[in-house]
Amino acid sequence: MGQIIPSLSGRSTPGMERRHDGEPLVVAIHGGSYSSAYFDLPGRSLLAAADANGIPAIAIDRPGHGDSPALSPDLMDIAGQAAFLVDALAEIWDRHGAGCSGLFLIGHSIGAAIAATVASRPGRFPLLGLAVSGIGLNTNPGDHERWSALPDQLHVELPSDIKDKVMFGPPGSYAADMPAASRKADAPAVKPELLAITGWWHGAAAGILGAIGIPVHYRQAERDNLWIVSEDEIRGFARALTASPLVDARMVARTGHCMDFHHVGPALHLQQLGFALECATRV
Question: Where do the AB hydrolase-1 domain residues begin and end (predicted)?
């Protein structure tokens, strides 16, 4: 892990310094209670898959995660972090985008909501497309009240056994050692963003998704324990992307919230990276 820009830590593909010739520059945005290591676990690494395919990629630590300093508490919700990242991504593009065709965002869970919010706003960088997973239109009833009951502080620790129950799908959909292996990606959860994803997002999602004017790749796990999941919900999410010129949306059978950690993870990464390459040809 190192500094991507002065205000954000993270990690990147080893080939970042190679001369680039029109490839997309992928920036991955992790979800709640994880760090940038989410995208770099051995055998389930988006960064390794990108490097193997000659695609420069960066996984950032969002504010308040890893070595990235937190914003003021009132800006640590989804909208506040998205506003910060609009400027931070412009700096990433200025520093690392030479020779690339544009930025391509990959977001998971709360990181997907933040990435979608960024994509709905004008930015000082060329944005090619967006890939999101672990997100929907509606979280489960009662989740907002449960998160509200957490201690009134910025960072809260989520016990590993509770995380395993909600982040992973049915037995057999992931390697037996994966829950333990995923611990190196753990980070304290940020209470304002937990409240935002289970409250504010429900009312804001349609407007945000409707303002995204770039291609969108969307995958949602059939056995996601944090969202209401059905074919109707998937279609509703896709229909909300009214301004997008290309939408690839579907449910992924028999897998859980953190799809990247499951057996389907490598396939998901190749799909997302392939979509990024396709978006680069549309420039």
Answer: 26-261
- Burial of 76 (C-beta count, 10 Å sphere; 0-12/13-18/19+): buried
- 171 CB contacts (<8 Å, ≥6 apart)? none
Q: What is the pTM of this model?
A: 0.98
Mean pLDDT value of segment 203-228: 99
Q: Which residue has the tokens 């933040």?
A: 114
Distance CA 204, CA 225 (A): 21
Q: Which residues contact 41 (CB under 8 A, 6 or more apart)?
A: 181, 182, 184, 185, 260, 261
Cα–Cα dist 13/34, whole Å: 19
How high is the pLDDT of residue 66? 96
Give residue-wise pLDDT tens across range 19-77: 888 999 999 999 999 999 999 999 999 999 999 999 999 999 999 999 999 999 999 99
Residue 74 CA to residue 31 CA, distance in Å, equals 19
Contact 150, 191 (CB under 8 A): yes
CB 28 within 8 A of CB 66: no
**3-state secondary structure at position 2:** strand
> How would residue 283 be classed by pLDDT, with cut points 50, 70 and 90?
confident
Q: How many separate domains does the chain show?
A: 1
Sign (positive/negative) of CA torsion 19, 260, 229, 60? negative
Residue 20: per-residue pLDDT: 86
For residue 38, the enclosing domain spans: 2-281
| CATH classification of the domain holding 16 | 3.40.50.1820
Q: Check whether 11 has a pLDDT greater than 80.
A: yes
For residue 63, give both structure tokens.
């504010």
Beta bridge partners of 186: 34
Work out the percent of the chain whose per-residue pLDDT is above 90.
Answer: 95
* DSSP code for 83: H
